Amino acid sequence: MGATVESLIERSKTAQKKFEFATQEQADAAARAICKVVYDNANELGRLAAQETGMGNETDKIAKCRNKSSLIWESIKHKKTVGVINRIEELHMLEVAKPVGVVAAIIPSTNPVVTPMCNAAFALKTRNSVIFAPHPRAVKCTALLVEKFQTELEKLGLPKDLVLGLEEVSIEASGKVMSLADVVVATGGPGMVKAAYSSGKPSLGVGPGNVQCIVDYDADLADAAKKIILGRSFDNGLICLGEQCAFVPAPKYEDFLEEIKKQGGYYISDPEVLDKVREGIFPGSGPISRDVVGLSAEEVGKVIGVDVSAGTKAIVVKAKATGAGDDLCREKLCPVIAIMPYDTFEEGVAMMVENLENEGKGHSIAIHSNTPEHVEYAAIQCSVSRVIVNQPSGTTGGGSPTNGFTPTTTLGCGSWGNNSFSGNFSHTNLMNITRVGYPYEESYLPDPELAWS
Q1: Nearest to 245, CA basis, from 347, 136, 167, 355
Q2: Helices vs. strands in the chain: H and E counts, helices first
Q3: Is 245 annotated in the active site?
Q4: Class of 211-407 per CATH?
Q5: CATH number of 5-206+425-436: 3.40.605.10, 3.20.20.140, 3.60.20.30, 3.20.20.450?
Q6: Is the pTM of this model over 0.85?
Q7: Using one digit for the tens of pLDDT, what is the confidence trace for 32-83?
Q8: Residue 198, number of CB atoms within 10 A of its CB
Q9: Which of 240, 245, 329, 413 is catalytic?
């Protein structure tokens, strides 16, 4: 029998108390070690993630291990998280960083290496401890990561129990660790995120993705097609940031299709075949079929009984309606993307909004445009936390050298997605702040005449 949840919590609390007053150098060393061990073991960890879960692309998972570990460490390594972190001279105030305690991290099967790495790096950077609750399809990944993380912590002379993982994996155990921890970070399906918010503890959960993408009249069609297929096909379409539907100017629709085909898109417009795709991915218009999640385009074709050309990167389907009018406009966790024409840019944005209202509200949109006014219009009209411009959403919305989004694996969707935060989860979400206020040299009271004029 493995350790009980209660005993893991006790060990985690004990380790965190020893780490609570660690120096900035110690916190940095711990966070760096977490990221570096994933970078150094990317081949082994990426391969195991693909093999154990049976989902995704091994090559992409290895690349993700290398890239995310580097990006996340680079983004936090110079950030101050110990002692006085901010002096606000004009307000005569100080801000002092404090840890939150024990972090329960719910790990999805779709990202069983990089998500725990991200959670642990942020937790240790801010002098917390972390307990992973893995998905049943990724128990080996979590166990190996915990072992490697603990080895690195011991080398630094830090308590190895700063990183722990559930040894008996079940819904009940995950629920218990969430209720006994100090803060919950839930990255996973809607059911688990809802459980996190019902745990009675402060929770940082994420909403479902269904990234809508629009190609403007002035966009470079070849460039847009290349980036859209890249974002949709990365890791066999498992990434919640992957483009799900693309809206294209009607006069350029056929030209865009040709560019999509050049990039490895396999276009399907036959109504009978489209019905087979719909039913194969969403049987009975219900939840997505687990049989297609994380498979390659060719493998998806075999499962649903549709002939797909060898070398296809993504299956491209023509949706018949937006929103609830077509299941193909929903989130598809495999390399399948819907495409539709629009007449005016405003009409195209309205179509994106309709899809988001049906599924994925609060997450992200992508836009390929050289007109800033159109980018801003889409940002204003769409209730999302991220707008990714002229980039492959699937590989850049979670932070990239090409943009200023915070590197992360956990993406908040705000109140739109029933989340407690909007934006990219970072170490700042795992800090308490003590604010110190000194008196002004002169007292300040607004002149009522001025205040209300």
Answers
A1: 355
A2: 16, 17
A3: no
A4: alpha beta
A5: 3.40.605.10
A6: yes
A7: 999 999 999 999 999 999 999 999 999 999 999 999 999 999 999 999 999 9
A8: 12
A9: 240
